[in-house]
Task: inverse folding
């Protein structure tokens, strides 16, 4: 099923059930921390949309949603360190409690820029970050992450919103790719 030139399916890291359980825990934690407050949940497109859809249904608070799209990767598996805003927020973040939802934090460049430079300059009441996955071993930017689903090794992962060259976002589980000797498997 997984056929990408130069890559093969390495294995499943987290099943749909494991993800669901963890997302429920994150939702409960967030609900407690923001008790009595409203949250603007900002999904970073495209990778976060599956996680965000599940997460907001586990949050017991006054929630509005917005989206941003930034580019830093192209179709490669390594970060370029360049952050470009392709789609901005529809509503002003001024005075709002912003909860940024990411699929995965790798170098941290994207979130460092979004939180500490871009959003910080627009007067939000608060900015927190929730990420489903974190690869701490690859961090180069000093960015504080408030909620993390799972920490993982330095693997390239796909599924549950995460892509390789825009493919595999629909997989209900998270798997990793391995470089392959053969061209197509
Ligand atoms: P950072 O700026 O290096 O932290 O890049 C984070 C972004 O890179 C994520 O939002 C993903 O879009 C992408 N990314 C990083 N690692 C992976 C991966 O293993 N699979 C899929 N996308 C990834
Ligand atoms: Mg992303």
Result:
């Amino acid at each position: 099923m997984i056929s990408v030139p130069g890559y093969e399916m390495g294995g499943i890291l987290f099943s749909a059930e494991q993800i669901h359980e963890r997302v429920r825990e994150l939702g409960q934690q967030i609900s407690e921390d923001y008790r009595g407050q409203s949250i603007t949940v900002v999904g970073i497109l495209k990778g976060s949309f599956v996680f965000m859809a599940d997460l907001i249904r586990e949050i017991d608070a006054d929630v509005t949603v917005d989206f941003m799209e930034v580019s830093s990767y192209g179709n490669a598996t390594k970060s370029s360190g360049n952050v470009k805003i392709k789609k901005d927020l529809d509503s002003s973040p001024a005075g709002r409690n912003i909860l940024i939802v990411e699929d995965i934090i790798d170098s941290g460049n994207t979130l460092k820029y979004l939180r500490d430079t871009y959003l910080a300059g627009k007067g939000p009441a608060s900015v927190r970050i929730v990420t489903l996955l974190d690869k701490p071993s690859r961090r180069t930017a000093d960015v504080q992450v408030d909620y993390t689903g799972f920490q993982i090794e330095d693997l390239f992962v796909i599924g549950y919103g995460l892509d390789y060259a825009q493919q595999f976002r629909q997989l209900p589980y998270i798997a990793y790719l391995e470089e392959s000797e053969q061209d197509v498997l």
Notes: The chain has one domain: 8-71+80-176. Residues 44, 47, 103 surround magnesium ion (ligand 2) (CB under 6 Å).
